[in-house]
Design a protein that fits this description.
Helix content: 10-25%
Strand content: 25-35%
Number of strands: 35
Bound molecules: uridine-diphosphate-N-acetylglucosamine, magnesium ion
Structural class: alpha/beta
Length: 455
């Protein structure tokens, strides 16, 4: 299937009471508009134009999508007209959707396109949904069967323009349309603003298309919740919960155990290996990959993290960092900005690691800081040891070899190189390089190793 789409997003979203445009509020780590664009994209729409307003337009650059500015918000019909004026006419199908419905999925866009493509006499297919009342959605008025025209859609009446009898109708206009583009172009210019809100309603095209001899095909959606719009922060929270649940279910189906989906916060695009268990109160976002058979959480945050297999992270934060297989982190550890851990490393409580490469089997179990450093395999880094990486002007590196023992409460004043197998005593303040195998204590640290006997 191939089609073009117009997404309307120029409205002010006043009910959000926000300085930020409504469609840029985030759900599960992505702006509202992202979800709509992703669903359109997945449905095979190959060109999308977003109708925006002058203030919002610069903020849409991140989407890499074409925008058209509607300088005054005169209604959805007016917005579509502005978009059509900017688009070169073409023969095919034109999908129109609103940017405030992040719960839509690929299938809804596919179904509505298929319905308009099914037969040449159909000028418009539109998604409808049965919903509990009361509702602010536009009502679908079906033709009276006694007139002989069947139960087809006759028109859409906005809630604000409804008679009490129309308000009692429970079939709603979802706000997702697939038009025959030529028919839409011929009709949109006839839409007026003679209604309660003095707005140009896109929904008026229904009656106009029928009057011109076209057919309007309703496409009922299976679950009305997938077309709920977001107009305020309560609806935003509800929609987020639905999206998050979908993300959790995707991973659960692929073999991940999620103990409590309601308190597991995921983003799209994550990779999580089979038999990994995610404990409650855990947030996983950014471009994160988690291997198989890991245990993540409870109370953990991973962002832009790359975890190998069999990793355990408990009550900790791992951001912009990589963790090797069978490594154990936490509780209460903080890895950030390029912490790069090998296999079978142990990082315990109140340990912060930044821009540091820790080789296999390094241990830093309590109360430590390792920043701008390289630590060799099997080195033990005791409680309270700190790399003093910042001299007040610039960051300096600490290089620690293999099988080193860094004592309790050490201050390692960088730049510094500590050789393989070296040992430092408790409380040492190391300001000079330590040769391999040397033992140093004190402040400033000095060697207490026995010198080899002179011959
Ligand atoms: C609209 C529909 C209604 C439907 C409901 C579904 C119309 C007239 N009504 O009502 O039938 O049941 O959506 O959610 O279409 N926008 C612009 N420019 C404008 C006005 C609006 O770009 O001048 C954009 C908004 O940013 C929004 C979308 O169009 O993303 C819909 O506008 P909104 O005011 O939310 O319409 P509803 O009252 O929800
Ligand atoms: Mg709306």
């Amino acid at each position: 299937m191939s089609a073009r789409a117009i997404v309307l997003a120029a409205g002010k979203g006043t009910r959000m009471k926000s300085a930020r445009p409504k469609v840029l509020h985030e759900l599960c780590g992505r702006p509202m508009l992202w979800w709509v664009l992703a669903a359109l994209n997945a449905a095979g729409v190959d060109e999308t134009v977003v109708v925006t307003n002058p203030e919002m337009d610069p903020l849409l650059a991140e989407f890499g999508v074409r925008t058209v500015i509607q300088s005054e918000q005169l209604g959805t019909g007016h917005a579509v007209r502005v978009a059509l004026d900017a688009l070169a006419p073409s023969e095919g199908t034109l999908v129109v959707a609103y940017g405030d419905m992040p719960l839509v999925d690929r299938t809804i866009f596919e179904d509505v396109q298929a319905a308009v493509d099914a037969d040449a006499g159909t000028a418009l297919a539109l998604v409808t949904a049965r919903m509990p009342l009361p509702s602010n959605f536009g009502r679908i008025v079906r033709a009276d069967p006694s007139t002989g025209s069947g139960q087809g859609v006759e028109r859409i009446v906005e809630a604000k323009d409804c008679t009490p009898a129309q308000l009692a109708l429970d079939e709603m206009n979802a706000g997702i349309y697939a038009y025959d583009e030529a028919a839409l172009r011929a009709t949109i210019v006839q839409v007026t603003n003679a209604n309660a809100q003095r707005e140009y309603y896109l929904t008026d095209t229904v009656e106009l298309l029928i009057a011109a001899g076209g057919r309007v095909a309703p496409v009922p959606v299976a679950d009305y919740r997938s077309v709920l719009g977001v107009n305020d922060r309560i609806e935003l929270a509800n929609a987020r919960a639905v999206l998050n649940r979908r993300l959790c279910e995707e991973h659960m189906r692929a073999g991940v155990t999620i103990v409590d989906p309601a308190t597991t916060y995921l983003s799209p695009g994550l990779t999580i290996g089979a038999d990994t268990v995610i404990q409650p109160n855990t947030t996983i976002g950014g471009a994160t990959t988690v291997g198989a058979n890991c245990v993540i959480g409870p109370n953990t945050r991973l962002a832009n993290a790359a975890l190998a297999d069999d990793v355990r992270v408990t009550e900790s934060v791992v951001v912009d960092s990589a963790v090797g297989a069978r490594t154990v982190i936490g509780p209460f550890a903080h890895l950030r900005a390029g912490a790069n851990l090998g296999a079978e490393v142990k990082i315990g409580n109140f340990v912060e690691i930044k821009k540091a490469d820790l080789a296999d089997e390094v241990k830093a179990n309590h109360l430590a800081y390792i920043g701008d450093a390289t630590v060799g395999p099997r080195t033990n880094y005791a409680a309270g040891a700190i790399t003093c990486n910042y001299d007040g002007v610039k960051k300096n590196r600490t290089v620690i070899g293999a099988d080193v023992f860094i004592g309790t409460n050490n201050a390692l004043v960088a730049p510094l190189t500590i050789g393989d197998g070296a040992i430092t005593g408790a409380g040492a303040v190391v300001i000079r390089d330590i040769p391999p195998g040397d033992k140093q204590v004190g402040n400033p640290a000095r060697s207490i190793a026995k010198k080899p006997a002179e011959t």
